[in-house]
Amino acid sequence: MFSIFEISGSAMVAQAQRMNVTASNLANADSVAGPDGEAYRARQVIFESRQNGEGSAGVSVREVVEDPAPLRREYRPHHPLADEQGYVTMPNVEPVHEMVNMIAASRSYEANVEVLNTSKQLMLKTLTVGES
Amino acid sequence: MIDKLAGALNFYQQALQLRHERQGVLAGNIANADTPHFKARDFNFSDELARAVAGDEQERALHLTTTSERHLATGVSTEEVDLLYRVPDQPSLDGNTVNMDVERVQFADNSVRYQAALTMINSRIQGLKGAMQSE
């Protein structure tokens, strides 16, 4: 039973990280410049299944990749960061994608919490086998 | 005497063990619902149970070394189940074959059956206890 805790726990950690990345993407959807002077690039997590023993597999985040999509350019000639043609480089965050990602992550998180709760209850019951 | 007792509980023990194993496999499927290239797995419970109960236990049991024929045979069965892959009815683009609905239904089903097995082993133990007590 403890292996189930590990499996669901790892999935919850991974989904929480996905949620974190989504939050950071959404929060930065309009940041014009990051600390390095470049516009923010959207990030995505990549999951990887983690085999522990025969059959049962947890999840871990393999890496967080930056979205290679081109940055958005907006025409704002009076902006202090505008280039010579009057364009400001904006992040390539797609708010719609991020919302979808967020909902999917929270649903998966919920499912894993449910699995964890059910397993915990079964385990507690198993501990009382033979008691009258 | 003791091996009779163990024999009386063997069936339920095997059933619980397999239910637990399946619980882990299904939890793994649900955990990997978003992992690219993950293939959902499961096993046929009734086949495995039949194999675990009827199959020759000597072969699959983990033995202590017995140096005298008067030593009791001890066995904790450590058989491995025959894990299969689920046939996806709607393949997804990233190669993941987890169907969340199927997995959740199977998980709930497995949990209830685990509880049923627990209830049965409990009443079996109560019955044996009752038979052993003097009035």
Task: Characterise this structure.
Chain A: Residues 6-34 form the Flagellar basal body rod protein N-terminal domain. Chain A: It is found in: Bacterial flagellum basal body. Chain A: One of its GO terms (cellular component) is bacterial-type flagellum basal body, rod. The complex is a heterodimer of chains A (132) and B (135). In chain A, 44% of the residues lie in helices and 20% in strands. Chain A is of the alpha+beta class and 132 residues long. Chain A has one domain (1-31, 43-69, 94-131). In chain A, strand 1 and strand 2 (57-66) form a beta hairpin. Chain A is elongated. The model of chain A has no long low-confidence stretch (mean pLDDT 88). With 135 residues, chain B is mainly alpha-helical. Chain B has one domain (1-65, 76-88, 95-133). In chain B, 57% of the residues lie in helices and 6% in strands. Chain B contains four helices and four strands, in the order αβααβββα. In chain B, the strands form two sheets. Chain B has a two-stranded antiparallel ribbon with strand order 1-4. A two-stranded antiparallel ribbon of chain B has the order 2-3. Chain B is elongated, with a radius of gyration of 19 Å. The two termini of chain B are 21 Å apart. The interface between A and B is medium-sized, with 33 and 35 residues.
Category from helices, strands and their pairing of chain B: mainly alpha
**Fraction of residues in β-strands of chain B:** 5-15%
Q: Specify the number of helices of chain A.
A: 2
What is the approximate shape of chain B?
A: elongated
Total of domains of chain A = 1
Structural class of chain A: alpha+beta
The main pleated sheet of chain B reads as: 2 strands, antiparallel
The total of beta strands of chain A comes to: 4
Largest interface in this structure = A-B, 33 and 35 residues
Low-confidence stretches of chain B: none
Task: Average the pLDDT over all residues of chain B and give the rounded result.
Answer: 83
Strand content of chain A is: 15-25%
Give the biggest beta sheet of chain A.
Answer: 2 strands, antiparallel
The gyration radius over C-alpha positions of chain A equals: 21 Å
The overall number of domains of chain B is 1
Oligomer: heterodimer
What percent of the residues of chain B sit in helical stretches (DSSP H or I)? Answer: 55-70%
Instruction: List the secondary-structure elements of chain A in sequence, H or E.
Output: HEEEEH
The share of residues in helices of chain A is 40-55%
